[in-house]
Amino acid sequence: MYFPVITNLTLKSLGARCDKYCPQWCLRLGKIWLPVNANTRKCFLLKILVESMLGSLNSSLCLGSGASMISQRAIKRAIDTVLSGFILIVSLPLMGLVALLILVLEGRPVIYVSWRLMSVDRTIPVYKFRTMVRDATSPKYRLKERFMRDGYLDIPRDCEVYTPIGRILERLQIVELPQMVNVFFHGMSLIGNRPLPSENVNLLRQFAGSEERFDSPAGITGIAQVVGRTKITPLHRLELERAYSRMYREDDILWCDLKIFFCTLYTIVFAKGISLDRAYRMVGIERKTSDIRPVIQTSVQV
After folding, report:
1. b vs e for 226-243, b when ≥16 Cβ sit within 10 Å of the residue's Cβ?
2. Are 194 and 218 in contact (CB under 8 A)?
3. Is the pLDDT of residue 12 over 50?
């Protein structure tokens, strides 16, 4: 005979109810009731305590359900806050060393600040280590004319504007460490669609539905970064970003974030991204661009 599991136990009444339901404990996994012997009783108590502290998560452990999306967003933000604070603390010596190297080898400024849109109506200063020459925005380099593609400015690492140490920082993604400040204080996420300058967003508006990419928090790494920003077309990138934001609103964003995290590590270690087809599968859509159409046509002189 199995007894029902009561998940809304309080710490005060936990001991009394434990005795009441002993010795026949049971644990529900989906629709299956499993007996729990005396040796695993502590694990079962831990399950109850965790559910109580998180507001009885028994109804939202099915991460794909629509009812759990609010909980998933809260969990995602909690993970971002804890991890960014931890990374800020443990990486301070490394960031100090990097700042000193940039100062000695390339001079000031050490930090590059770019004002970018977190959402369609909110702009924040995004911090990065400076990896380019001081006059990188000078007309002589013609970066926008050469590398701007329908709102996405993706400058390859072999471009002449990168400094020698800058290429190393970009390759290892150490350049992004100061953005932990943005995650901790400004509501950015460790994983999400990249924030963009307002000029880039204005160019993206030529595509219907482009604002959907802002329905999720902007991030340091994202679905487009694990493919390789310079290896996909703007339409494919926007499709992936819109699909990621859709998953944030409606589907299993935590599982998707976990996959993007490990793909990011793979990209850093092996210096190559995942396939475009795999990226589409990760965000749960088919590889097509039929639902995105330019509202106006633009041309770029290279």
Report:
1. bbbbeebebbbbbbbbbb
2. yes
3. no
**Domain-by-domain residue ranges, the chain?**
11-59, 68-282
**Token reading at 60:** 């939202």
Answer whether the bond into residue 125 is a cis peptide, omega within 30°: no
User: How far from chain centre, in Å, is Cα 62?
Assistant: 21
Bridge pairing between strands 122-129 and 152-153: unpaired
Asked whether the predicted pLDDT for residue 106 surpasses 90, the reply is yes
Please, which contacts does 1-6 make with residues 24 or more away whose CB atoms are closer than 8 Å? 2/26, 2/33, 2/35
Predicted confidence band of residue 251 (pLDDT cuts 50, 70, 90): low
Beta strands in the chain (DSSP E): 25-29, 32-36, 111-119, 122-129, 148-149, 152-153, 189-191, 219-221
Percent of the chain with pLDDT over 90: 59
Whether the predicted pLDDT of 131 surpasses 60: yes
Q: Nearest Cα to 248, choosing from 286, 217, 291? A: 217
More confident residue, 68 or 191: 191
Question: pLDDT tens digits for 166-206?
Answer: 999 999 999 999 999 999 999 999 999 999 999 999 999 88
DSSP state, 41?
A: H
The count of residues in the chain is 302
Rounded CA gap, 249 and 127, in Å? 27
CA torsion through residues 266, 267, 270, 275, sign:
positive
Packed helices 11-21 and 41-53: angle between N→C axes, nearest 10 degrees: 140
First CA to last CA across the chain, in angstroms? 76
Residue whose token pair is 């000193």: 100
Tell me the angle at which helices 69-90 and 253-270 cross, rounded to the nearest 10 degrees: 30
